Amino acid sequence: MDQLIAAYRKGDLKLVRKILFVLAAASALFTYGGASLDALTFVEKARSTVFAVASGCAIYLIWDLAIKIVPALMESWKKALGLVVILCWCVIFFFLSSSFNAAWLKGRDAQELHQSRYVEGMGDVLDATFTRALSVESVSSDLRLEAARYKTAAEQEFKIGLYSGKPGPGAVFNALGAIQKRLIDLDDEVADFIERSGALNEQARHRLETVRKIATSSKSTIKRMRDIETESDALRANLARMDSGNLTASIARTLESLPGEVDLQTVYSSNRQLAKRQRQALDKVRADIERTSGKLRAFIDTSNAQNAPRLPAFEKMTAVQAVKHHWESFIPFWAGSIALDIAPLGVVIFLMIGMSARSREELAWNDIMQLTLEDVARSKMGSEAQRLIGIDSESANSINRKLLGREARKTEEEEDV
Q: Are residues 9 and 53 in the same domain?
């Protein structure tokens, strides 16, 4: 430790600088690899080369200055300021170099992972959407039962006057027949939706199989992403048409309009007593409509309570974007990429610890104790030169105090006086 600190104070950092150069060169190489992964033209590759060389030079320059300056700071606030500046540069190095390092190591794998996860998600969303579409089959049976019930009620009204007490056509019969027709039309709409959903499901599964083949093909990553994006947009259109939410809204609108079929019946019998019974009968029909609405609204509420499956648009990603987006799958490689750029921080911290563990006088004494025979000879020659020059005693004392680490203490004493 003593030899290391003495060498540092003399500026002997040859070994550190050699290692720092190797780290910066390696980082520049990795940065070029990551930056040029998606480069296709000569200009793009040249741009990646210049960027990598410049980032490597910046890393070497900053760490060389940090190692020289920060550990030598003696005041606490200066050390803290130096560390803050270093940490700011570490953040810059992450975006300048580390992300490209990780991209070169695992960028292609990250892009493959991004594609495979999206394709897997496509299958899950397709299954969920089709299952949700088939859930309307339950409401279809309810619609048929309700339509049959209103048909029977209309026949009974026509034959025996089930509601109004007077057989034959009239306001009640017409209202029951109109409601039956609305329910039959709605059931036909549900049947068409189920048939259309089956056809759309077949198309969507064919597209899904096409996407899977594209993802595992030997085409370039950029070409595969472009093809997946095209097929994904078409599949998302199929899924949108399979969404049962549109049908649910149509059922809700039909239920809201059913009481209107009763309100449209404004032609009553000229007989006051019979007209009164017709109005009372129509009130019974309204009650039946409420009962019918209650059954169908249970389906609507259940459907609305479920979140409709959504397939997001496929996002094309560069190698750098992919390795950032799926970082949790490449933690060891991220750790190595970051460590490559901030490894010199360990040298700075260890030197700071070693320097802080000694006082100025101890550091000066350690410098003296580490002198070699060559240093002593040079010191003797300096003393002879000083004698010949005739330096004044005050300057000589100042030099001695500085060499012994006492200059700062003397300055503080003078300020107190």
A: yes
